[in-house]
Amino acid sequence: MMRKVLKENGLSLQVTLTSEEKLESPGSYSRLIRSAVDEAIRLKASDIHFEPTNKGFKIRLRVCGTLQVYYSSEKNIDLKILPDVLRGAMFTTLKAISNIPLGKQSEAQDSRISFTKRGIDVRVNKIPTEFGEKIVYRLFNKNESKKLTDAGFPIETYNDVRSAIQKKSGLIIITGETGSGKTSTIYSLIEEMDRERLNISTLENPVERHVEGVTHTGVTQKLGFSDGLRALLRQDPDVILVGEIRDETTAKLAVRAASTGHLVISTMHTNTALNIPKVFEYYGADQMQLMESLVLGANQRLIRKICPECSTSSDKKGGNFKTVNKSGCSKCSNGFLNERVLLFEYFTRDEINEKGGILLKRSIKELVIELAKKGVIDENEVHRHTH
Ligand SMILES: [Zn+2]
Fold first, then answer.
1. How far, CA to CA in Å, does 224 sit from each of 118, 218, 232, 242, 302?
2. Cα 179 to ligand 1 centroid, rounded to whole Å
3. Does domain 3-141 sit in CATH 3.30.450.90?
């Protein structure tokens, strides 16, 4: 057990070290984990993977949606140490830092820790694998701004989004794949609201970030999205944020709430904003109520910016198209910058006609072509995001 001794008024007291104190202890494995955490923060990585392998272990960081190897014991191995001894020592230290109890090696376990000085909250997840336990850190930067003005919207989009969140009631649905940043977007929407005068409540799985003036509730096995939403509706809400709509009851309740005087914000897993009514139809929600309450429907993607230093220009007419140079240069990693651009396809109330037909105000296709023409993204992204 890692403990420290506090001496006060002549008394000495043993206290368990915090995760950050354990991270900063002098051992060589703590040092390696610490350097991975600090590098992840520097690169704004979203996750750190600590993976056991047949020859020891490796550490990978997810930066801008792509995993990159940070450390591999195969390359740095001291041949006198056997892989399982190496792995054992590494994961014992990692589990101590991560507040994952030793033992229970065949079980999935999770925990939450904070590296307070670094301004980082970590959601830890452990799962048994063929070579031992794999641990993944999902990082949440507490100081990172989530303001709507920083979301990267063009001015017209920003104004449309703002007017949607100023409505007293209605439904705002942001769609996108995992890792498309839709959770960040819905957080930035509630950050923008008058949190003192409105009762804003959330239902999330899990609560990813605390927003001042907002009541957050995490769903559990005992309180799922639908029961939670039903209970929240009895708490006199103005705005309800539901992390994700993925079952019939939640879909129906969300539509009903939106058409009875509440502003409901949620996300869905589909690849175009035009599919939103179809998903609700699939869940059996009232289509008429839905079309009357939808105030904003969107689909978003995050695309890596291409490195302007080493990319090659193609001689296509009508724009400054560029192709990635996969070997990269000293200014980038494999031809890409550690930065992504947000593509936000959407429609508002005004784009829904009387028959329920929807015309997109901006489409992913239009946006991706525009960015490729400017040479901001790899021209191959056009094909990837329009088919
Ligand atoms: Zn480059």
1. 33, 9, 12, 11, 29
2. 24
3. yes
